[in-house]
Amino acid sequence: MQRLLRGEMFMLGGFVAAAAATILLILPQSIDSAVAQPTQTSSGPLSAADVDLLIKVRQAGLWEMPAGEYAATRAQSPRVRQVGKQIMDEHGKLDQMTRQTAAKLGVALPDEPNPDQQRWLAQLATESGPAFDQDYANLLRAAHGKVFGTLALVRAGTRNAEIRKFAQEGINFVMRHMTYLESTGLVNHNQLPEPPAPSPAPTTP
């Protein structure tokens, strides 16, 4: 009888352990699924990628506008000073558009650049002359390349009409800014990330 009871308790313990393990496996997936669910808005579902785009564009402006102010007093090249003013002015318009879109969709936006952007601003604040010109052109060109990829992917796949319109405008702004920066003649394209490798050709049966 005792042996039977011990056996039943052993089986019960194993069942409880297995059930607990199953819950631990399922629970994070359930939480992730809940977080990943898009928010319904009047302009369509708002996904995490849509929200991330608004945040990234907002933070881009929060460091590129001050960087443009630095260019006015620290750049040696007249073209860099001109580009700095153009980007600063256009980012002011893009930032207004970002805040308006975020307000329509109920998205909270940050009030300061991310840590990398703060570090880039601190670097530019210590430089002047040719060193500033070089770093300004290359830091901003690399940053625009990253946000351009995000804008393009969200524009291609978003289900939200407001985000689709915003991403389209953002692509136009960023394309212009990359062209401005490249017009300085200071961008080192060899330091930019490599384009993605092409997909392998399908094999013939």
UniProtKB/TrEMBL annotation:
Record's protein name: DUF4142 domain-containing protein
InterPro entries: DUF4142, Ferritin-like
Domain DUF4142: 50-178
Highest rank taxon of the organism: Bacteria
Alphabetical list of Pfam families matching this protein: DUF4142
PANTHER family: BLR2558 PROTEIN (PTHR38593:SF1)
